[in-house]
């Protein structure tokens, strides 16, 4: 503990201070807050076995978002709602950032050239520059070693080989401190600094928090804390219209009303998996960076890297439904061993466990498609998980 | 989307190719606002039924080409071939794969084998 405490100050210090801050900011796992009872239950309540908490009112933040058909997402523009949805459950992603909307902060950093508090994108950029430098140093060392070995062989003597830097021990050379800016050179900027801040207009924040239709449906139907607005009229959409619009989104743009509702609609299949993992307490985020559908975080991306990578594999109860399907559901056709091996390798490399989530799609012959008019049909889907780990017999004894 | 500042620049292509509208819009915003590309131009690639972009990364002079697509699409070799032809046979083009949560993953495509730089 003492080694953690010795690091002080703002910025990106790891250790006790940062963790405490994160525990405070990201204290609530969901946008809804159930307040703990102030006083202990009286003996009467205890005797009756009633918890006072049940009578307490749930605090609902009532967030708002607008449906965008082209991007198949819901946009949240209000900064209070963005903060609530991100901090209580890590819902959504800033459309110009890698996680939390930070575009405006990054632009202001570039303008003020202060760069004292780095956003995660800036840390990532710094890390990439260091890795690039490491690769150049290593390539140069390898080239030097080859040249030296060559010269030594020709001269008939022992080669004095230079050390090849390894990723574990290489340290970045201290360079001239170069705070973020790529536009203005430092000395010019200092003179202009004061005038720049006065002359330039305030920057409009054009970023929004983007929720996938699965996240938005979970928030509006599951938790009832999100109102979704129709894009053209700005009127709140009813649950019925949300339910049918989200299914229509996967057909064609503009949506074709002649198709009947189907159980293998990609929105439904993915929603089943999303709802399943969310209701078990996992924070579910998109997994495209690791060639999977979803990443599962125990508490959230700010705490620890995702432990599990989930691929959603739809299974048709009735194969005839698959033949008549207007969608091409990814993962529905049998996969090859090379595909599976590739994804497993990619994820093992980043210390994630691959989970195959099989979602069973009910047969139209057994379950009436009338049920598709409401979320009650979700009860007919089932999810089974298979965890994949590579087994190496030679190394994995005991 | 209509009230977003980027809409005007993309309006004709958004209307001509509605199925690629989401990917075009997201990629344009990423390149112009987040990546801060310079001299960004929008091009039309009718063979692939979508628009594409040409511009420069900050602090570099090379003209780079980006063609957007969405994760749910299925692309073929002839699609890539036509994209290369239409964009004037550049040494490489970037494929911007867009997702519904607004993540974009860029892949660099070259017409042939390329040795890694380092």
From TrEMBL, chain A:
User: What are the record keywords, sorted?
Assistant: Lyase, tRNA processing
This entry's Enzyme Commission designation comes to 4.6.1.16
- Enumerate the transmembrane spans: none
Q: What Gene3D superfamilies does the database record attribute to this sequence?
A: 3.40.1350.10
Organism superkingdom: Eukaryota
Q: Start and end of every tRNA intron endonuclease catalytic domain?
A: 267-359
Query: What is the main EC category here?
Result: lyase
Q: Which InterPro entries match?
A: tRNA_endonuc-like_dom_sf, tRNA_intron_Endo_cat-like_sf, tRNA_intron_Endonuc_cat-like, tRNA_splic, tRNA_splic_SEN2
Region (Disordered) residue spans:
1-20
Q: Does the keyword Transcription regulation apply?
A: no
The text of the family note is: Belongs to the tRNA-intron endonuclease family.
Cited function: Constitutes one of the two catalytic subunit of the tRNA-splicing endonuclease complex, a complex responsible for identification and cleavage of the splice sites in pre-tRNA. It cleaves pre-tRNA at the 5'- and 3'-splice sites to release the intron. The products are an intron and two tRNA half-molecules bearing 2',3'-cyclic phosphate and 5'-OH termini. There are no conserved sequences at the splice sites, but the intron is invariably located at the same site in the gene, placing the splice sites an invariant distance from the constant structural features of the tRNA body.
Name of the protein: tRNA-splicing endonuclease subunit Sen2
Organism, as annotated: Somion occarium
Automatic annotation (TrEMBL), chain B:
On whether tRNA processing is a keyword of this UniProt record, the answer is yes
- Give UniProt keywords alphabetically: tRNA processing
Q: Which residues form a coiled coil?
A: none
What family is reported? Belongs to the SEN15 family.
Domain named tRNA-splicing endonuclease subunit Sen15 is located at: 26-116
The name on file for this protein is tRNA-splicing endonuclease subunit Sen15 domain-containing protein
Pfam families according to UniProt: Sen15 (PF09631)
For this protein, the record's Gene3D superfamilies field holds: 3.40.1350.10
* Matching InterPro entries: tRNA-endonuc_su_Sen15, tRNA_endonuc-like_dom_sf, tRNA_intron_Endo_cat-like_sf
**Membrane spanning stretches:** none
């Amino acid at each position: 503990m003492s080694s953690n405490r010795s690091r002080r100050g703002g910025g990106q210090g790891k250790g006790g201070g940062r963790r405490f801050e994160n525990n405070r900011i990201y204290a609530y796992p969901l946008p809804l807050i159930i307040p703990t009872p102030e006083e202990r239950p009286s003996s009467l309540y205890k005797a009756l076995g009633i918890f006072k908490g049940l009578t307490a009112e749930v605090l609902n933040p009532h967030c708002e978002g607008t449906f965008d058909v082209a991007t198949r997402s819901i946009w949240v523009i209000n900064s209070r709602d963005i903060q609530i949805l991100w901090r209580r459950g890590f819902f959504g992603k800033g459309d110009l950032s890698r996680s939390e909307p930070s575009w405006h902060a990054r632009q202001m950093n570039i303008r003020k050239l202060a760069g004292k508090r780095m956003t995660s994108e800036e840390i990532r950029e710094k890390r990439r520059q260091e890795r690039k430098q490491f690769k150049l140093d290593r390539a140069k060392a390898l080239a030097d070693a080859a040249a030296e070995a060559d010269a030594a062989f020709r001269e008939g003597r022992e080669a004095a080989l230079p050390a090849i830097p390894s990723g574990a021990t290489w340290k970045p050379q201290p360079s001239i401190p170069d705070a973020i800016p790529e536009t203005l050179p430092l000395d010019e900027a200092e003179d202009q600094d004061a005038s720049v801040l006065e002359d330039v207009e305030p920057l409009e924040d054009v970023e929004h928090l983007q929720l996938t239709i699965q996240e938005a449906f979970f928030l509006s139907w599951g938790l009832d804390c999100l109102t979704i607005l129709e894009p053209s009229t700005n009127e709140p959409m009813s649950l019925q219209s949300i339910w049918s619009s989200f299914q229509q989104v996967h057909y064609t743009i503009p949506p074709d009303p002649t198709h009947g509702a189907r159980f293998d609609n990609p929105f439904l299949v993915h929603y089943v998996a999303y709802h399943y993992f969310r209701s078990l307490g996992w924070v579910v985020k998109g997994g495209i960076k690791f060639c999977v559908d979803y990443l599962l975080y125990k508490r959230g991306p700010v705490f620890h890297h995702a432990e599990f990578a989930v691929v959603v594999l739809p299974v048709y109860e009735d194969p005839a439904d698959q033949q008549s399907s207007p969608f091409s559901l990814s993962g529905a056709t049998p996969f090859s061993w090379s595909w599976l091996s590739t994804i497993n390798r990619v994820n093992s490399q980043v210390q994630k466990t691959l989970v195959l989530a099989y979602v069973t799609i009910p047969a139209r012959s057994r379950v009436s498609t009338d049920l598709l008019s409401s979320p009650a049909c979700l009860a007919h889907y089932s999810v089974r998980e298979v965890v994949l780990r590579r087994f190496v017999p030679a190394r994995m004894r005991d | 989307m209509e009230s977003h500042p980027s809409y005007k620049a993309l309006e004709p292509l958004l209307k001509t190719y509605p199925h690629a509208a989401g990917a075009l819009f997201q990629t344009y915003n990423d390149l112009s606002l987040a990546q801060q590309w310079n001299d960004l131009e929008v091009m039309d690639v009718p063979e692939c039924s979508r628009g594409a972009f040409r511009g420069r990364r900050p602090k570099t002079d090379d003209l780079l080409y980006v063609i957007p697509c969405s994760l749910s699409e299925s692309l073929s070799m002839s699609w890539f071939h036509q994209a290369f032809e239409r964009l004037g046979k550049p040494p490489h083009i970037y494929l911007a794969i867009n997702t519904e949560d607004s993540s974009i993953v860029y892949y660099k495509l070259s017409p042939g084998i390329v040795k890694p730089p380092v």
